[in-house]
Structures are given as C-alpha cells and as structure tokens.
C-alpha cells in the first residue's frame, strides 16, 4: 500500500449555452476530512473543455505526488482518459478516420498533470443526490455566472441565504487518524451564535477507519451540546452527512441491512448517533466553500489527540 497522501477529488464543468460562457469546479478531500474548493470560468468555451479544465486544475493543485480517486459525471472525461487517450497518443493525436483530436491542448495538459500521481478515475451520475457532485456543480455554475454577468435565480439566492443563516448552536467537526493507526483524534467546536462564545472539545478513540472515526466524533460532540437549544452539525465528511441524512432511512426500513443485503458497517455507532441527534433535534449540513475560521485549530487539536 502506498504511503503517499491520498485525495478524493470531485470535478464538474459546463457552459450555457454550449458553446458559450462556462465554469468549472473541483473539491479536493483529504482522508481526514479536510476540503479545498477550486473554481474558475471562461467567457467562451464548451461543456467538454470545462470538464477537462476542472480535472487539470484539481490535479495541478496537489503539491506532492499523490494517490487520487477522481469522480466525474462526464463520460467524455472518464472514457477519454481511461480508454481513448492511449490510442490518440500512439496515432500522433489523431482519432478514428485520421481526424484531429478535439480539445487536444487540454488532453495533452491533462496527460501531463495526471503523470505526477496515481489516479483512479470514477464516474458518477450527475444530479442524482451525490453531495459532492452537487457541490462542484454549484461551484461551476457560480463561476460561469461570474464571467457571464448572469445573476443567480431568486431560488438560488434564497437557498444560499437559508444556508448562511445558522441555528443558535453550530457544531464544527474535524478528525485525524495517522496512516495505519487504530487510534484517531477528533475535535469539535460548539459555537453559540447568540452569546458569541465558542467551546472546543477534543479527544481520541479506537477507530477502524476514518469513516468510523467521523461517527465517533459526531456522537462525542452531540453529547457536549447544551440541552433544549436548536443545533446544526457542519461537517466536511460526505460519508457522515449522507449517512445520517439519507442512508439511515433505508437501513432502518431494511432492518439495518444495506441494499445488497449485507450488514451495515458500524451499526452500533450509527444507532447511537441517530438516537442522540433525534433526541436533540439536530440538523446536518455539509461544508461548502471556504472552511470555517475555527477549522485549522480543530485540525491541529485532532492531530495532537491522535498522537497522544
């Protein structure tokens, strides 16, 4: 197993009309749940060029050679990089019928960018409820709107306003689990927006994986919440967020079995977390854009706790 850093990356891009003003977005996710969002736009481009640009810029943003799992909803990008590219290179950048490869400049740039890393290319259906896919779509759309001068729709502005208005208590989470270790660290900030106070808690715990550690961190944070006050947990971890807001509904209906009929991993922790969240009326949000100001401090605390 590689000892290089591992990143999960989601990318998206598009133009409206096609061709026309376009934007791209990417989210880089570390194994301990930290995220970095990237985006950009061009005044005249195409859907495919923006999809390629998103992948190029995401891979270029990685400072060191890394193991990467890159998710895209573009069959053009996925098939091109995994199936078509070797033949194009062998044929001096000519495709079937001796025609020139479209977007050759970007395919060449992507070929260079990926060679620094070991990349596993994954496809996901767009607009099908995948949280990070939806987020990069939003990043790309906003980038396109910026370069075109287009104003966001009223519904989009209302959604952003709703997201930007937190309940009284906000919980921010971070975890850290050193490679190969069965002990992880967690840290949580409990922010009271009414009194403008922040309380920070941290600790360590045995954990089978970073996913398992995310559940433990969330449960420990909820146990420190003041009773009777509305609270929202904000997390960069799509596993935790999607699990507690979507998957758990199906698990309960299927008597804690997955769609494939297998047992749900970490069932005991999921049940405890759900019970605590239901008792307190907790809502959940996935981090988007820049991380909260307290996030860096929490990451350091989680790392320290993991080492101890």
Question: What does this entry show, briefly?
Answer:
This protein is α/β, with parallel strands linked by helices and 308 residues long. It contains nine helices and twelve strands.
How many H/I helices? 9
What is the CA–CA distance across the termini? 25 Å
Largest sheet: 5 strands, mixed
H/E element sequence:
EEEHEHEEHEHHEEEHEHHEH
Number of strands: 12
Relevant CATH superfamily of the largest domain: Ribonuclease H-like superfamily/Ribonuclease H
Highlighted features:
308 residues, alpha/beta, Nucleotidyltransferase, domain 5, 2 domains, 5-stranded mixed β-sheet, 12 strands, globular
List the helices and strands and how they pair.
Elements: E1 6-15, E2 20-30, E3 35-45, H1 47-60, E4 67-72, H2 75-90, E5 94-95, E6 99-100, H3 104-114, E7 118-123, H4 131-148, H5 154-164, E8 169-176, E9 183-192, E10 197-206, H6 210-223, E11 231-235, H7 238-253, H8 267-280, E12 283-286, H9 295-307
Parallel strand pairs: 1-4, 4-7, 8-11, 11-12
Antiparallel strand pairs: 1-2, 2-3, 5-6, 8-9, 9-10
Helix pairs in contact: 1-3, 6-8
Description:
The chain has helices spanning 47-60, 75-90, 104-114, 131-148, 154-164, 210-223, 238-253, 267-280, 295-307, and strands spanning 6-15, 20-30, 35-45, 67-72, 94-95, 99-100, 118-123, 169-176, 183-192, 197-206, 231-235, 283-286. It has 308 residues and is of the alpha/beta class. It folds into two domains: 6-163, Ribonuclease H-like superfamily/Ribonuclease H (Nucleotidyltransferase, domain 5); 166-307, Nucleotidyltransferase, domain 5, CATH 3.30.420.10. The protein has a five-stranded mixed sheet with strand order 3-2-1-4-7. A five-stranded mixed sheet has the order 10-9-8-11-12. The protein has a two-stranded antiparallel ribbon with strand order 5-6. Strand 8 and strand 9 (183-192) form a beta hairpin. Helix 1 runs parallel beside helix 3 (104-114) and helix 6 packs parallel to helix 8 (267-280).
